[in-house]
Specification:
Length: about 450
């Protein structure tokens, strides 16, 4: 069938002209009903306007069942009466009853919280107001979900019911599919809009993480975050304590290195991470030692974290290239791993401290070490060690320590070590398995 022929079948004008020539349509004449049904099916495949579909169905009902008054009450996607799309199919002789039905609807005044279980009350009121009619009811069902109701008014109960009529059921099923498709399209568009917003948020968040590692005198630095979802709750950052100085002076000045993890993942964790980043960056400029930074940050963020019912683990450190001293304080984050090249051993950098957002007056301790040539510090989040494989085994800290120890014994750069750890992580989890949590790694190595 050509497109222009389909458009003709698609139009209300065709149905009116076609059926008015033979108002006593006989279903033995399958050719006419076949063309109408083809038109309806084509409409279902092409439509985007639910009002037109409902008008179309009413038009067919009016001509096929001209002795009946048919009331169509669709439900919206929340299962409430869709007031603006209630339709009545009736012939010219039934105009007065149509006015009465519309008046009844106006007086009945469906509430916005109307649910399917409340339909019984409506049906009782309907039958009380139209006692002169025998009223049958049918559900409009699609995939076992009620998409609306149809009420058939007959002048007396002895008239043959149309509820078992093949043609009636065909049209009702088409209507059910149309309503279902309409809400699926609406839901899909809504999801597309949300996906676009999440993608925009993820893009903004990725820009908040350092897109490159700064140059710190005598240090080889590499970092990467791999979120489990588009938005993540992991955070790492590098901040100059005195950012408004010349680049040469800044490179030899003190730097803050931080890594953190907001409980959970996705949008809520991403929003809290962004909030925390702003607070921390303001605190870093004070030049206070790490324990004071975490203490003040906890007091600033605790109200917001408490309301969100989430907490944050954070490891904060600062490094002075002139003295090669690294000061640090830990808010219950995974302790970074220190590779002592002179001893060919790995140690943990840790201090006592509660997670951020748990206790108003939480206190934090400060540790300090002096780094030597080829020493290395690996900062990471629990998304690395908590990753599991198909057998349910965790990557765990011990495995990470063994891998790091082997890599540090070779002359790899920080970036090479970073990439090799992620490669080991991918090999462990297996193909087509996504990380269960955000995974971030920072490699800090003295040249």
């Amino acid at each position: 069938m050509l497109n222009n022929q389909k458009d003709n079948l698609f139009s209300s004008k065709f149905i009116n002209n076609f059926l008015e020539n033979d108002s006593s349509l006989s279903f033995k004449k399958n050719d006419k009903f076949s063309e109408i049904s083809s038109s309806l099916v084509y409409y279902l495949k092409s439509f985007s306007n639910i009002k037109k579909l409902l008008d179309y169905v009413c038009l067919i009902f009016k001509h096929i069942f001209d002795q009946k008054i048919i009331l169509i009450i669709p439900l919206n996607n929340s299962g409430e009466i869709w007031n603006e799309n209630i339709k009545i199919s009736a012939n010219i002789e039934s105009e007065k009853i149509e006015e009465r039905i519309n008046s009844f609807f106006y007086k009945f005044n469906f509430s916005r919280n109307f649910k399917i279980k409340d339909i019984k009350g409506f049906e009782i009121a309907l039958k009380e107001n139209f006692k002169e009619y025998f009223i049958e009811s049918e559900k409009i069902l699609s995939r076992s979900k009620c998409r609306g109701f149809i009420y058939i008014f007959s002048e007396n109960s002895s008239n043959k019911s149309i509820s078992n009529d093949y043609s009636f059921n065909f049209i009702v099923n088409c209507l059910a599919v149309g309503l279902e498709n309409y809400w699926l399209i609406k839901t899909n568009k809504k999801h597309e809009n949300v996906d676009r917003e999440i993608s925009t948020g993820a893009e903004i968040q990725s820009q908040l993480l350092p897109d490159y590692c700064p140059i710190i005198y005598g240090v080889d630095l590499a970092a990467h975050c791999r979120p489990a979802l588009q938005l993540g709750g992991d955070y790492y950052d590098f901040m100059s304590i005195k950012p408004n100085t010349e680049e040469r002076i800044k490179q030899k000045g003190r730097w803050a290195l931080v890594i953190g993890d907001v409980m959970g993942k996705g949008i809520p964790a991403g929003l809290l991470m962004t909030m925390l980043r702003g607070m921390l960056r303001a605190e870093v400029l004070t030049g206070l030692p790490p324990d004071r930074i975490l203490h003040d940050l906890n007091q600033l963020a605790i109200n917001d974290l408490d309301q969100s019912h989430r907490f944050v683990t954070l490891f904060y450190s600062d490094y002075d290239p002139r003295t090669k001293k690294l000061r640090y304080s830990n808010a219950a984050h995974n302790p970074p791993l220190l590779w002592r090249n002179s001893e060919q051993k790995i140690f943990k950098l840790d201090t006592e401290g509660l997670v951020l957002g748990l206790q108003q007056d939480a206190e934090y301790n400060c540790g300090e070490i002096e780094l030597n040539e080829h020493d290395l510090v690996l900062y990471y989040t629990d998304g690395v060690t908590d990753t599991s494989n198909a057998l349910g085994e965790r990557f765990d800290e011990e495995r990470l320590i063994n891998i790091l120890s082997k890599l540090c014994k070779k002359s790899y750069s920080s970036l090479e070590i970073l990439n090799k750890i992620f490669k080991k992580l991918d090999d462990f989890t297996g193909q087509n398995r996504h990380l269960e949590d955000d995974a971030s790694i920072v490699v800090f190595q003295l040249k």
